[in-house]
Amino acid sequence: MAEGEDMQTFTSIMDALVRISTSMKNMEKELLCPVCQEMYKQPLVLPCTHNVCQACAREVLGQQGYIGHGGDPSSEPTSPASTPSTRSPRLSRRSLPKPDRLDRLLKSGFGTYPGRKRGALHPQVIMFPCPACQGDVELGERGLAGLFRNLTLERVVERYRQSVSVGGAILCQLCKPPPLEATKGCTECRATFCNECFKLFHPWGTQKAQHEPTLPTLSFRPKGLMCPDHKEEVTHYCKTCQRLVCQLCRVRRTHSGHKITPVLSAYQALKDKLTKSLTYILGNQDTVQTQICELEETVRHTEVSGQQAKEEVSQLVRGLGAVLEEKRASLLQAIEECQQERLARLSAQIQEHRSLLDGSGLVGYAQEVLKETDQPCFVQAAKQLHNRIARATEALQTFRPAASSSFRHCQLDVGREMKLLTELNFLRVPEAPVIDTQRTFAYDQIFLCWRLPPHSPPAWHYTIEFRRTDVPAQPGPTRWQRREEVRGTSALLENPDTGSVYVLRVRGCNKAGYGEYSEDVHLHTPPAPVLHFFLDGRWGTSRERLAISKDQRAVRSVPGLPLLLAAERLLTGCHLSVDVVLGDVAVTQGRSYWACAVDPASYLVKVGVGLESKLQESFQGAPDVISPRYDPDSGHDSGAEDATVEALPPFAFLTIGMGKILLGAGANANAGLTGRDGPAASCTVPLPPRLGICLDYERGRVSFLDAVSFRGLLECPLDCSGPVCPAFCFIGGGAVQLQEPVGTKPERKVTIGGFAKLD
To answer: Which residue, among 185, 193, 188, 194, has the nearest Cα to 217 in the 3D structure?
Structure first.
């Protein structure tokens, strides 16, 4: 029984040792220099926060052509172990710099380097190629001498060496061979001693006797972290530069205006953050293990998928090879048939010519026929023979081979195919689409238009995602609404919520997968449901001066010759008419919104609403703008100027002229325009591309907006005791175009309601 318990205890101890060994082995990766791949020795902290051995950094700078920037030579304190009289035989190969060369280096700023002259006003900045981040890091003018030494990392390396027993026992550096085991170390002397040597080199009554002994070590560090610029102990931390500074650095102009805190505060803050992060990681070890398993599963899937991809590519290439081989066989067969046909024709021609030789063939037969003396028989035989001889004679006189020996017509032009094969590559996913903000807008529906970059692979279809940004944020990831497999490069999003802000994005998809999302686009929807109406040309208009388009969505004022004649007689009391056109729909309840575009070159245009009955009464007979009976308003015909009248005005108009909007004194506060002493008397604002009109029938208020940014321009009261209809007034030349409803566009519709939400 006791033996079983001892065995179980032994097994537990061995398992613990294995875990400790594995943990230490995994930590060893963090203690290796990225240059020499060995444990750090006097590591320096680069500006990119990576570490590198001081000796390795000097070697790298030397390879880059920088000479003398490996650090301040005086920064290395001398030790008894490095003097000629006491140096150990193991260190006899270390050579000291010559005094004359050291003086030259100190006087010249530690040497010269490419691109710098001695005494230059603008010395070259030293760049160090960091092997960890694969980028050049700026070291400043002083090079490695301006970097801090990572003493914490040195201590971790030393503790790791001691835990794994790396290097064995530490020997005394001052003993005669064979050296004894070191029992003490001295940071000031930077050497390890046995008891006798420590007493010998630290005699009583001298300054060295005040040196404090430490444990023997192979790496000596200063007691505290010193400023590389002033050789003073660092006491503060600059949050702006994210750098430790000393008292001298703190008062220098370099850190003027920076946020500097004591190093104790920075220590506590950073330690708390690190402890909190480490506690979170240690408290979620199950999550880490789950993610490791997931990554391992991903690795297995990657291996399988990679092998499948290789097989698919090999199969496709073999298929191409089979097609080429089949094509090669058919082309060779065609050449073979053509060759045999030509050879047959040439062989027949050779036989015919051989029959023309003396004594053979046709010539020999003709010679024998000529020997015939019987005239009737000769005539009978020679008639047919003469035709053959004639044809042979003609062929002989006009000799030409029966077939050509050239096969130029069988040449192949494979330039296009070779180019295609050369450019044969894996199919790439579409690049992020670019949303056309000039054509994308929100009205009764949202019209979204986009395009792919010029050199992007084609997309088979697109995915649209959108969400409202003005709703309270829900806990968890952002929830998007999605529409899949949208064809074309535009879409309609139906039934958007009024008075909301939508953010939209698009991404393409093809056989290779989904591409990146486009940049988010924010769209404001109208503050009320859109009112659809047409321009009514049946009354209140002069057909001579107003021209309404066929679709009844645009109107243009054409004053013509009468206005010119009136302008010529302006000083003699001419009378100019106000031309009015109304909408064919009247509002009797709820809230309504519509938009229009006014030609910036219009002379004077009024856009607004009014009671249908009052509009008919007021504008049935055209008023005269020059007549003393006509009282022009101060920006809108709302009657708001008359403070003594409590009745609500029957009209509300916004005055536009020559690309400007005229706002009266009462409208400036609504538009956010104020002067030095309060609201200005009157002012003008630039005309936006589209104007929006929002009518609240129940509240008896009408608002004029910038239909692009939905910024308020004017808000005024309105008498809504009866039907209210849109109205447009013209004085002189001008044009108005109603905003066309998005639903009339023949585009693909995407209904917002009822979509599955995407996390």
So the answer is: 185
Nearest to 637 by CA among 556, 745, 563, 729: 729
- 351 CB-contact burial (10 Å; exposed 0-12 / middle 13-18 / buried 19+): exposed
Distance CA 298, CA 404 (A): 66
* pTM for the structure as a whole: 0.54
Q: What percent of the chain has pLDDT over 90?
A: 25
Per residue in 498-540, pLDDT (tens digit) is 999 999 999 999 988 999 999 999 999 999 999 999 998 766 5
Please name the amino acid found at residue 362: L
145: its two tokens: 């001498």
Nearest to 605 by CA among 655, 661, 651, 558: 655
In b/e form, how buried is each residue of 475-501, taking b as 16+ CB within 10 angstroms?
A: eeeeebbebeebeebbbbbeebeeebb
Q: How far is CA 180 from CA 81, 174, 275, 419, 632, in A?
A: 15, 9, 43, 76, 112
> CB count, 10 Å around CB of 633?
17
> Beta strand pairing status for 490-494 and 546-548?
unpaired
620: which DSSP letter?
S
Tokens for 478, please give them: 């952002």
Q: Which residues contact 608 (CB under 8 A, 6 or more apart)?
A: 636, 637, 651, 652, 653, 654, 693, 702, 704, 726, 727
Distance CA 711, CA 704 (A): 9
Contact in structure between 701 and 715 (CB atoms under 8 Å): yes
Cα 691 from Cα 597, distance rounded (Å): 6
pLDDT digits (tens, 9 = 90+) for 380-397: 878 777 877 887 787 777
Distance, CA of 383 to CA of 135 (rounded, Å): 102
Q: Where are the beta strands (DSSP E) in 604-648?
A: 604-611
| Residue-wise pLDDT tens digits, 54-101 | 888 888 888 877 765 555 433 444 445 444 334 333 333 334 444 454
Q: Where are the alpha helices (DSSP H) in 1-98?
A: 2-27, 54-63
Confidence bin at 51 (pLDDT 50/70/90): confident
Six-digit token string for 26: 């995994």
| Cβ atoms < 10 Å from Cβ of 225 | 17
Q: Say how far apart CA 632 and CA 653 lie, in whole Å.
A: 12
Amino acid present at 222: P
pLDDT at 603 over 80: yes
- The DSSP letter of residue 227 is -
CA-CA distance, 387 to 370, in Å (whole number)? 15
| β pairing state of 749-751 and 490-494 | parallel
The answer to whether the CB of 128 falls within 8 A of the CB of 57 is yes
